[in-house]
Design a protein that fits this description.
Strand content of chain B: under 5%
Largest sheet of chain A: 2 strands, antiparallel
Strand order of the largest sheet of chain B: 1-2
Shape of chain A: flat
Number of strands of chain B: 2
Number of strands of chain A: 2
Largest interface: A-B, 55 and 46 residues
Structural class of chain B: mainly alpha
Oligomer: heterodimer
Largest sheet of chain B: 2 strands, antiparallel
Radius of gyration of chain B: 33 Å
Strand order of the largest sheet of chain A: 1-2
Radius of gyration of chain A: 17 Å
Chain lengths: 141, 768
Amino acid sequence: MISVILQIATKIIAPVQLIFSIYLMLRGHNQPGGGFIGGLVAASAFALYAMAYDVSMAKRILRFSPQLISAVGLMLAVISGLLPLIFGLPLMTGLWDGSISMHFIGLGDLKLGTPLLFDFGVYLVVIGITMSIILSLVEED
Amino acid sequence: MDLVLSVLPIFLLALIAPYLFRLSKKNTGLILALIPAAVCIYWIANIGHIESGATRQFSLLWIPSLGINLSFYADGLSLLFIILISGIGALVLIFAGAYLSGNPLLGRFYLYILFFMGAMLGLVIADNLLILFVFWELTSISSYLLIGFEHEKEASRRLSLQALLVTGGGGLALLAGLILIGLLTGSYEFTDLLQNPDIIRSHSLYLPILILVLLGVFTKSAQVPFHFWLPGAMVAPTPVSAYLHSATMVKAGIFLLARMNPILGGTDAWHYIISIVGVITMVTGAVMAVVQTDLKRLLAYSTVSALGTIVLLLGLGTVMATKAAVVFLIVHSLYKGGLFMIAGTIDHETGTRDVTCLGGLVRFMPITAIAAGLAALSMSGFPPLLGFISKELIYEAKLQLPALSGLVTTAGILANVVNVAVAIIVGIAPFWDDEKIRFQPEHEAPLSFWVGPLILSMLGLISGLFSDLIGRQLIAPAVSAVRAEETLVRLKLWHGISPVLMLSVATLLTGIGLFFIRHVLRRLAANLKILTNIGPGSMYKFMIDGVLRFAAWQTRIIQNGYQSIYTLVIFAATVLLILLTFSGSYLDFDWFMLTDVRYDEVLLIFIMLIAGFSVIKIKSRLGAVIALGVIGYSIALLYVLYGAPDLAITQILVETLTVILFVFVIYHLPRFTELSSRAVRIRDAVVSILFGSAMTIMMLKAISIPHAPISDFFMRNSYLQAFGKNVVNVILVDFRSLDTLGEITVLSVAALGVYALLKFKTTRGKQP
């Protein structure tokens, strides 16, 4: 079931979707969004590739194995939780540095802190597991 | 700080060991040995500080709300263990490098054994009891990996699992005991407990606590009736036996017993339980040892006997007994570690461990023979080695007992006599006995084989000669720590002609006599072999088989591979649990609350109901999927109505991805037909209706209970404390981030499971 229309549309839509997913993740702290939602949107972009082309294409776009992606995500989440220990604070305390903030169009000022790192970890884990399940299901045949 | 620096590098070293092994195949063992050797030398250099009664402490808050802190503490007892663990560990690493050279998995072996070493070091310096427990379990797990190192052998897998289950089961009991201690005293810090040592002893829960802790100790230190795992664990490569089963892991139980002495010891229950178990273990181990013909099994059973001796001495609890226990602990670690390595060397050079086929090896392996001879002399308690002093102390301690002195001493003499015979069988006969040379080595083993045993046996000799120094600097602080009071230790080689000396001489002579009638004993034992059928080993097997049969049975019934059964079981169980919880209580729900339902909500509910019925009735799979999707999207709309945009977005995305998944697999699914009989459909309908009703009741109950919603707290503090305006997200990534961490971990594991299941099926399909 190869559709040229879907393939071309995918090439245009998927990148937008990926950027949108990052946007969703970043804005999550103040507006609806977050790592989980962002991760799902990103995963659906890759799934779109798997649908319009085939699994190997989706894998190529994904570059890394889904298991690796979720492992890295999990590690980032753990690291963000361990960081406060260095400063003598209890595990998983959110660390914020008000002095570092970045300006994003459409987001306003974004403060950096370990919760953001944690959310990014969640984002990666969600992409990893969704793609892991989708890819291994589709590869079945 | 130096405490942490003695443990952390070992763990880091464990991580890089496999990579190091790839770089330098030949010398990895030697390089790795440097770090534990450095730790050992550092603490020997610091003996002076600890000797004067000072302790080291280091603490880091971890989970203060549960009283779990990364707190470490070292006193004389810890110091003694650190030196033994790191020192013998360094020698074993060198030995392992030679013994296992050529094994492609050697890198992994280093990883395991260093991991074990780190866990063991952490265990002996832990101040917080729960941290101690964590390290305790880490030693169990790493020893499981080590015992089962040759995992392609069925026996290795079975016996390593046996060791893990026995010690792990004891570990669970220990955990319960430690938690009880924490609940009673309000602190898990050992140093806090030391301030008020009588709280636990005078509490009504003292006996349960003691028994739970002792279960941990007895399983770990291979006391009867849990001793059977230790001889089984001899399937491990010999370096593992030399390290874990002589000097370290089995001594972890001893360590805990000594540690707990100030807060749990001194009562009648303590004395009786521990002494009786100790005596029985001491005698059982000895009797079983002398009839073995395999070098490692000989050593294993004699280790059981030695552990029994130490446990007995700690149970007696007098000053003399504590001294004897500490000295014997050192002596045993030195000679037993050495003898295990020698057994490995013999095995490596001749290809056999059967003592009936070994003899005259001294001509080929003179250096190994010297090391073995010294170790055997120390083991049999020959002057001027430290083993002699230790045996004198043990006899003295036993003779001093007010009650039961005769019985305990007799048992002790029996065990020691056997020890002498075993020492000769293992350490002397294979080298000097010239009767039969069936297996000839070609040459002396290389340096890295004999250097460890030689150093250990020389230490046994040197420490005997300089016993006063050892006594003051190493043993006195340890004894003081065990007794929680300043204790002087004066060790002497020569006590003059005393009853104790007479006993020693008699023991030696009888032991030598026993050596000469060993064949008779072995024949006798062969006739009694039937007795093993009622031993604890076969009890264990019976239990394990039972558990496996039960597991197979219940898997066949409730996990038979049909999705519908799984769902049914889950739903039925949930219904049962809810009904059980709410049975007897009645629902006082304010039904008028339902009147302010909005029309759009009613509309949504109707859509969902219609979709729900369609799912059941529709004849095409795609149609059913779409109908399910309608329900999902309607729920998302409900979220929107109630002002939960995050939930709504998530719901919509999940629904969408579910549809995508269906599209992917729909062509592979079998035809969508109705296979279930009428009866089954009625059963399913009943369970569904019950499940729906139970959930409804639970909902109504939940909203009719008056309570202050916790959402207020999050609303108020979200921006103030966590700098986020989106409360849902702030809860996920900040207030409850530990939950989220747990969830994403579970999700990752589940995804791996899905991956593995699907891959497994494909490979099996391809290769029938």
